[in-house]
Structures are given as C-alpha cells and as structure tokens.
Amino acid sequence: MDVFKAIQDRREITKFEVSKPIPEDVLEKVIDAGVFAPTGNNLPSKNLIVVQDRDMLDQLADTTPYMKWLKEAQAGIVVTGKPSVSKYWLQDASFACAFIWLEAVEVGLGSAFGAVYHSEDEEESQIREGYVSNLINIPEEQRIVAVLGLGYPAMTPDPKKHVPREEVVFYEKFGKSSK
Questions:
Q1: Cβ–Cβ contacts within 10 Å for residue 163, how many?
Q2: Which of 25, 105, 125, 152 is the most buried (most CB within 10 A)?
Q3: What is the pLDDT of residue 5?
Q4: Is 23 left (phi over 0), alpha (psi -120 to 50) or beta?
Q5: What CATH number is given to the structural domain containing 91?
Q6: What confidence score (pLDDT) does residue 26 get?
Q7: Is 15 exposed, middle or buried (0-12, 13-18, 19+ CB in 10 A)?
Q8: What domain range includes position 102?
Q9: Which of 20, 135, 159, 6 is nearest to 67 (CA)?
Q10: pLDDT under 70 in the chain at which residues?
C-alpha cells in the first residue's frame, strides 16, 4: 500500500477484536513509525510509552469519557512531548501520532486517537495529563499529547464525508480556489 492509500483508508477504529493479539513484529513496526517521525531541528522532543498490559489499558480508558475503546484495544501508545527540549514539542508529538496511525493502517491494524493534551482548557489538560502521568510514571516536565489505541478492527466505519476540496485548498492567496 502506498502512503496516499493509507491516508485514504484511515478510519478511527473504536471496536477491536478483543481476542486477536498483535504480533510483536507488527507492533514494533508501528512503534518505529513514531520513532522515525520528523522532529523540529531533529531534537529528541518526544517519547512513546507502549502499553500492552490489560489492566493498564483499562485504567487508561478512564482518562477521558471518550477513550472507552481502550478497553478493547490490544495495545496503546502514549505519546508525550518535551517542551524543555524543543519549542516544537506539540508538532513533533503530533507527527509521531500521525505516522503511527498510518503505519497501523499499512499493517492491517486499526487505531483510535485519544486526545489528552487540551490546548483550550489548561485545567482539563492538567487533570487528564496528571491521571496518565500517575498511572505510567511520566516525568512532570513532559506533556502528554495523546494515547493511540491499537488492535485488529472488529468493524470498519464507512468513510466520513470530507469538506469539499475547494473549501480547503487555495492557490497563491487565501480564497483563490483555482490555479
């Protein structure tokens, strides 16, 4: 599969086959996609914490009301950023999340994105990040961007209807939709 095909095929999978484990080599390939994701100035501004323990995944599912799918996931990857290392920590962690998700599609896995960091509500972000940090011992200076759930899809949703291209893409100046 090519990258564009993975982008087109990507769906948020929130129903996983609970009795089908992810082979270690497959999971390692997905992890490596996050490792090799670009970072600003090539600085080590992200960490990936891989969680496969069933009890821990169940606890992580309580991070927000929107992450219950972790109770069915076979693995989770907590993606953190390090503001003390790079001013681009959020972008770097976001790239890692995207690359992990696309590689998951490539290897036949489904993924769901659980936002932990909340850019518009610092109090809510601290509650979420504190909860995850306490569970898996993340140093205080790191920000927890997201938890990606992984597993084999129990069902694949239909494609979402995207905003029409002409409402998103402009040429040369904002608002100019033709070349």
A1: 7
A2: 105
A3: 81
A4: beta
A5: 3.40.109.10
A6: 98
A7: middle
A8: 3-167
A9: 135
A10: 1, 179
